[in-house]
Specification:
By secondary structure, the chain is of the alpha/beta class. Helix content is about 45%, strand content about 15%. Helix 1 packs parallel to helix 2 (about 45-50), helix 1 (about 15-30) crosses helix 7 (about 175-185) and helix 3 crosses helix 4. The longest helix has 19 residues, at about 70-90. The chain is globular. Its EC number is 5.1.3.14.
């Protein structure tokens, strides 16, 4: 039988982190011809991940521009991928999650009648503007996709309710857990000197990220005011805020937190540094989606600075708490975890609902099964089973 030609497409750092272990798995299977196309919707942060996982893309659309718009990204991805697809004529493309690259890549494949596999399928907030534009990117990709690799049983249920055939859905766990098994080291030394000088054993180090569009303006201001209050009223706390490079976020963060004692304002770290900072810290405060999946794997409580989440499993499991951007609510929830060991331990010990490090293998097995190369019974990820 001829090899299945698969093109894996991604453009941002979070996508790259989650697709890297899948790319490595694809390349190990003799039945598959694996190609990688990056759009470089993000450039510098994407390149860090490619280097970390030793991935050399076959195609690089290099679309990133200053002040790029969603329309501009979509148009460039569609036009760039049209040329790639005409040349390579793949049997399947794989996209991940909810970025504009993901939706535009799926649409480009649909126009060429190429099968689409959606990794991390089925997450929903059921509000098309939260998160924006991610919720609709993911939902529209789901409408196009032929194979749906849902990370959890809850994500599968969302897809079934939207009319997706059960035979096209595979519960795999999340590939980010596969990636973290590669990146996290117990005795890790940071390349950043400031991070190495923090006393992680005697201080309660809080890692913070907050940059989502829906929090721009009042949301980020409230978050920063709350963080300042938390540090000033808890002497054992040290705060590490990884500040997004966008001036809309960066200017507000520096206005409120620059120069505050025991606050470290750092640019975004590369993936390995970020994962190891998470591993060393006491707790996490974030509006990121990905960190809600990564932290449970490390036993770190997360306070989510958003009003809704497309990742309810960690909330239900108890390792994540959704608290929004009200200043007083942020302060009270953070103080509870800092001062109440029992409450902290409840969140710290909650079960990880997102995977066992074998998601990439399950996805590739499902691809081979779908194309008739494998007739074995597929084993899905089940959070209640021991792995």
């Amino acid at each position: 039988m001829e090899k299945i030609k698969v093109i894996t497409i991604f453009g941002t750092r979070p996508e790259a982190v989650k697709m890297a272990p899948l790319v490595n798995e694809l390349q190990q299977r003799e039945e598959i011809e694996s190609l990688v196309c990056v759009t470089a919707q993000h450039r510098q942060m994407l390149d860090q991940v490619l280097e970390l996982f030793n991935i050399n893309p076959n195609y690089d659309l290099n679309i990133m521009q200053a002040k790029q718009s969603l329309t501009g990204i979509t148009t460039k991805v569609l036009e760039g991928l049209e040329e790639v697809f005409e040349k390579e004529k793949p049997n399947l493309i794989l996209v991940h999650g909810d970025t504009t690259t993901t939706f535009a890549g799926s649409l480009a494949a649909f126009y060429k009648q190429i099968k689409v596999g959606h990794v991390e399928a089925g997450l929903r907030t059921f509000d098309k503007y939260f998160p924006f534009p991610e919720e609709m990117n993911r939902k529209l990709t789901g409408a196009i996709a032929d194979l749906h690799f849902a990370p959890t049983a809850g994500a599968k249920e969302n897809l079934l309710r939207e009319g997706i055939k059960e035979s096209d859905i595979y519960v795999t766990g999340n590939t980010v857990i596969d990636a973290m098994n590669y990146t996290v080291e117990d005795e890790y030394e940071f390349t950043n000197k400031e991070l190495n000088e923090i006393d992680y054993k005697s201080k309660k180090v809080i890692m913070v990220t907050a940059h989502r569009r829906e929090n721009w303006g009042e949301g980020i201001e409230n978050i920063c005011k709350a963080l300042k209050n938390i540090v000033e009223n808890n002497k054992e706390v040290e705060l590490v805020y990884l500040v997004h490079l966008n001036p809309i976020v960066k200017d507000v963060v520096y206005k409120y937190l620059d120069g505050v004692e025991r606050v470290h304002l750092l640019p975004p770290l590369d993936t390995k540094e970020t994962h190891n900072l998470m591993n060393k810290c006491y707790m996490i405060m974030t509006d990121s989606g990905g960190l809600q999946e990564e932290a449970p794997h490390l036993g770190k409580p997360v306070l989510v600075l958003r009003d809704v989440t497309e990742r309810p499993e960690a909330v239900e499991a108890g390792t994540v708490k959704l608290i929004g951007t009200n200043m007083e609510v942020i302060i009270s929830n953070a103080n509870e975890l800092i001062r109440d060991k029992d409450e902290y331990d409840v969140m710290r010990k909650a079960i990880n609902p997102y995977g066992d490090g074998k998601a990439s293998k399950r996805i590739v097995d499902a691809i081979l099964y779908n194309f008739g190369y494998n007739n074995k019974t597929l084993t899905e990820f089940n959070v209640n089973e021991k792995h």
